[in-house]
Amino acid sequence: MSDCIFCKIIDGDIPSTKVYEDDKIYVFKDIYPKAPVHLLMIPKRHITSLAEVTADDADLMGYMLTKVPQIALQVGCEKGFRTIINTGADGGQEVYHIHIHILGGGGPLPF
Ligand code: AMP
Ligand code: ZN
Q: Whose CA is nearest to atom 5 of ligand 1?
């Protein structure tokens, strides 16, 4: 998607602080962190939102969830973390490329 900022981040056209990357996903630091650890995990394949996910995406979605705890552990969230997927206007989604927020790293989250 040529006008998608997260696709541009994957392509390196917009700078980001990369934490992890493989052939399927890209993980980077949220630019406005709401916790000491605030990462965004995105699939390299553009999917607009959780509301648009189909059966064809099941393997990729499962893969992302299996990577979340591995990456959270690597960045110091061994006592826990929070995952959030905002979906659609009422869900507070601002960027329409599906992403999993990973938050934690500073003790119990205050929100
Ligand atoms: P959401 O409201 O779930 O769509 O979250 C979008 C998130 O993307 C917000 O937490 C933003 O701070 C974050 N964000 C937007 N632009 C960038 C960027 N260029 N680099 C890193 N994070 C970004
Ligand atoms: Zn995209």
A: 94
